[in-house]
Design a protein that fits this description.
alpha+beta; four-stranded antiparallel beta sheet; disordered N terminus
Length: 235
């Protein structure tokens, strides 16, 4: 456990969030860098350490944030750490350990964000992490993380070829559907899928197809029953 400094950092109505974390070095962690959603950057360590990219950076999703940081100190004034490890709200982990780092838990300090908060940066001085700076954890509309598909029949086309477009947001998909003649939509949940139905000629086509299959099934059942009855009469 360790002391933390909580601060809610906002820019207008948007909560500041970490978008990328990178670490560089070789024998030790020369440089740690956080990039944020507003384009700003926080870094610690040697200013030219970023040239030695030994570890892959951590790219965070829009609804992902850092909840835990593990720091192995290297007590001097030049390097940022002997090793560092970050864990996100989705369980993904980025770990960077120089040749001088032991990688042992007993040599590291663990810092955890409070519920509802996220880690925005570390408070490192002379190679030792003395705490973390927290901010409000970002929240994202779940619909904005889904892929929306719009299908329609081109009016006036000689061939009834189904048109198709993909959208990353529900509102954009509904606006596009309205431009091609869709009416008021309704949602139907089919397991993990959510289907948007509307008053569209394609729905009439689906209705007619289902009706045709149903009538064919009924006709076949009727014909089979007549054959069985006729056979019994002959006996």
């Amino acid at each position: 456990s360790s002391s933390t400094e909580a601060e809610a950092v906002s820019k207008g109505s948007d909560v500041l969030r970490v978008t990328k974390v990178s670490a560089a070095g070789y024998g030790a962690i020369d440089h740690i860098e956080f990039q944020y959603s507003d384009g700003s950057i926080w870094s610690v360590g040697k200013p030219w350490g970023g040239k030695k990219q030994r570890w892959n950076p951590l790219i965070l999703a829009d609804d992902e944030f850092i909840v835990e940081a593990r720091h192995e100190p290297l007590r001097q004034w030049w390097w940022a750490a002997a090793a560092v490890r970050f864990r996100t709200s989705k369980g993904r982990v980025m770990e960077a350990r120089g040749d001088w780092g032991s990688g042992l838990e007993k040599d590291s300090e663990v810092f955890t964000a409070a519920p509802g908060n996220c880690i925005l940066r570390l408070k490192i001085h002379n190679g030792v992490c003395h705490g973390i700076v927290e901010g409000v954890a970002p929240t994202v509309d779940p619909d904005s993380l889904k892929l929306w598909e719009v299908y329609w029949l081109q009016e006036g086309a000689e061939e009834s070829e189904v048109q198709h477009r993909s959208f990353t947001g529900r509102d954009a998909a509904l606006r596009a559907a309205s431009r091609v003649g869709a009416g008021h939509g309704a949602s139907v949940h089919v397991g993990p899928l959510r289907v948007e139905l509307d008053d569209h000629p394609w729905c009439d086509c689906l209705h007619d197809t289902v009706g045709l299959v149903y009538k064919t099934f009924r006709r076949r059942r009727g014909a089979r029953g007549s054959a069985i009855t006729g056979g019994a009469g002959l006996g």
